[in-house]
Amino acid sequence: MYKIKYHFLIFALYIYFLYLFSGLFLLIPISLSNFYDKRYGFFIKNIFYINIAFCLKYIYGTEIYINSNTILNELINEKDQIIVTQNHFSEIDYLFLSYIFTNLNSITKIFNFKYIYMAKKFVGSAFIGAGLFSFFTRDIYLVRDISRDHDNLVSNNNADILYMFPEGTCFNYNTKKISDEFIKKNNLMYLKYHLYPRLTGLFTLLKTHRAYKKIYDLTLTYDTIPKDKLGSIYKFHNFFTDCEFPTKIYMKIKKYNIKTNILFSNKIDLIYKNKDKFIESFDQNQNFFKKINFNLYVGFGSFIFSNIIGLFSLYLFFSFSFIKLIFVLQIVLYLAYFNLN
């Protein structure tokens, strides 16, 4: 019989409903303001992501250890547009990039910083809260149709950071089997702890967006997910019952300069071979990783701001009948947008 991990359940519900009610409250004004300046949507999105990092660190107690805060600072302070890639063991992987945003260090940087997420088609009905913030800033959702995806990538070219999971889906026994069959059929390099990356979207992006000069690649491993259990399925709901939410995340970050598409494509096998070796050999008890730089003032300010917006949204929702109607209409319009596009 499963034992519910109430501490993580409470945290997850808090994040979900905070995003849901805040997002609904902000959807119309942010959507309107974006006609004049899209930075408003990015600012709200950044604040709420930093709030996640603050909650994970100071309420839930999760720490991130990184091989180089120097490279992390280079990532945040890049003047060129960059791509950030990451391995994909579970549905919680995307949460931890939020720690990086606390290093923006000032309201001006948070306001001007544009972060776009790129993934396969979004399941809007399951993640309405987070999806509304995604809607604000035009995250890129691929539909695995070359012509439509190409047009989508071409029209979205203003990100400071474009964040993506090249493997396309979470690593587990089922997806690994499919990946291994693809590797064997195409005589590609075998990978033990990764799926073979599907890079059509990335290479399309490099051809259409010459402004992207560097790729920062993240390889994450967790203290509560041992290497011999990496083939298990770690969906979000699994951390309510049969999995322990990680308390220590180890993040290896590497920087690659993109000179030409051809030269970079030849490096992919070597990059993933090194990522595989890192996970195979990494011992959390014998490493030189240090805690990630974390700006407490930025984190706490984002926590306060997010909760004020959330509480004000709840007040409006329960105090005025017409506000409830507007909230419902926004949900309908939002779901129609994501399911028809």
Descriptors for this entry?
eight-stranded mixed β-sheet; alpha/beta; 341 residues; Glycerol-3-phosphate (1)-acyltransferase; globular; 13% strand
Q: What is the compact description of this entry?
A:
This protein has 341 residues and is α/β, with parallel strands linked by helices.
- Number of E-type strands: 8
> Strand order across the biggest sheet?
4-3-5-2-6-7-1-8
- Main beta sheet: strand number and arrangement? 8 strands, mixed
What structural class should be given to the helix and strand makeup?
alpha/beta
N-C termini distance: 41 Å
Please give the radius of gyration in angstroms: 20 Å
The level-1 CATH class: Alpha Beta
Low-confidence parts, pLDDT < 50 over ≥5 residues? none
Instruction: List SSEs in N-to-C order.
Output: HHEHEHHEHEHEHHEEHEHH
Report the CATH architecture.
3-Layer(aba) Sandwich
Mean of the pLDDT scores? 82
Please give the domain count: 1
* DSSP helix fraction: 40-55%
Description:
It is a single chain. The chain is of the alpha/beta class. The chain has a single domain (6-340), classed as 3-Layer(aba) Sandwich (Glycerol-3-phosphate (1)-acyltransferase). The protein is 51% helix and 13% strand. The protein contains twelve helices and eight strands. The chain has helices spanning 6-33, 39-60, 69-76, 98-101, 107-112, 128-136, 146-155, 173-185, 200-208, 261-281, 296-319, 321-340; strands spanning 63-66, 81-86, 115-120, 140-142, 161-164, 212-222, 248-257, 290-291. Strands 4-3-5-2-6-7-1-8 form an eight-stranded mixed sheet, sandwiched between helices. α1 (6-33) packs parallel to α6, α1 crosses α11 (296-319) and α2 (39-60) crosses α11. The longest helix has 28 residues, at 6-33. The mean pLDDT is 82.
